[in-house]
Design goal:
alpha/beta, binds magnesium ion, 2 domains, binds adenosine-5'-diphosphate, 244 residues, Rossmann fold, 4-stranded antiparallel β-sheet, single chain
């Protein structure tokens, strides 16, 4: 069953049209990757779901309810969490303070219980909980950002390049964790540059090129068709990693 349905979306910033006629569906329980070279509109697509772009035409629905025109702050009420690429944690606060902020609507016992659940999924955060978030390594920082999103108990998480700037072994850790979240019932749509890596973990992928969906398919379909991937992804880090 489809959870997020984007149809014929044309969107951008003011007069600049970035996305044209984009169709994308994320089914309940699916782990979907959104790939494509730099500047192809991946972040714009994710931001459109959160009313952070100007929508020219098309529809965006969560559970058959339109999200278009809703204020950004209210989108989370529809069970969607956003983990942006940058500024996704508060560096001046400790890990624990960051996590508590994410559950500030809960009373103290419930907040503590939520943190205990989070520490099961993200054990590294428990060890470091009193540490300043600004001192975390890139990988730990991403784990914290994902944990903050997860604490909202969303049905759908949208993540923008969660592996950006991470060493290959950490990239794998992040994707393994995402797979675990998916197995635990959270539907995922993840923007990625590390195409080759994420195709081993996701179920389905869309490839954007110049604001349009150039190709889509299961990981197997995309990996099996090297020529298509080469042609559609162009010269980008994503392609580099796919082909070597
Ligand atoms: P990607 O995430 O695939 O690298 P983006 O969605 O960030 O691509 O950007 C797509 C296009 O939109 C680029 O040409 C970029 O310059 C432009 N763009 C992105 N953000 C803004 C913005 N806030 N205002 C105007 N143009 C933007
Ligand atoms: Mg981007």
């Amino acid at each position: 069953m489809s959870l997020l349905t984007i149809e014929q979306l044309t969107a951008g910033y003011g007069k600049l049209v970035v996305l044209r006629d984009v169709n994308l569906t994320v089914d309940e329980g699916q782990f979907v990757a959104i790939l494509g070279p730099n500047g192809s509109g991946k972040s714009t697509l994710v931001k459109s779901v959160f009313s952070m772009t100007d929508i020219v035409a098309g529809s965006i629905e969560m559970d058959s309810r339109s999200l278009i025109g809703l204020p950004t702050e209210s989108i989370s009420q529809h069970g969607i969490a956003y983990v942006p690429q940058r500024e996704n944690i508060f560096s001046s606060m400790t890990i624990r303070e960051n996590l508590l902020l994410a559950v500030r609507h809960l009373d103290s016992p419930k907040a503590e219980a939520a943190l205990r659940d989070a520490f099961e999924l993200f054990p590294i955060l428990e060890e470091r909980q009193e540490q300043g978030a600004g001192q975390l390594s890139g990988g730990e920082r991403q784990m914290l950002a994902i944990a903050i999103g997860w604490l909202a108990r969303p049905r759908l998480m949208l993540l923008d390049e969660p592996s950006a700037g991470l060493a290959p072994s950490l990239v794998k850790d992040v994707f393994r964790l995402l797979r675990r979240l998916c197995e635990a019932g959270i539907t995922l749509a993840v923007v990625e540059q590390n195409a080759r890596s994420i195709l081993r973990w996701c179920d389905y992928a869309y490839v954007l090129r110049e604001g349009e969906i150039a190709f889509q398919g299961t990981s197997e379909e995309i990996l099996a068709d090297e020529e298509t991937v080469k042609g559609y992804l162009g010269v980008s880090p994503a392609v580099e990693s796919l082909l070597h």
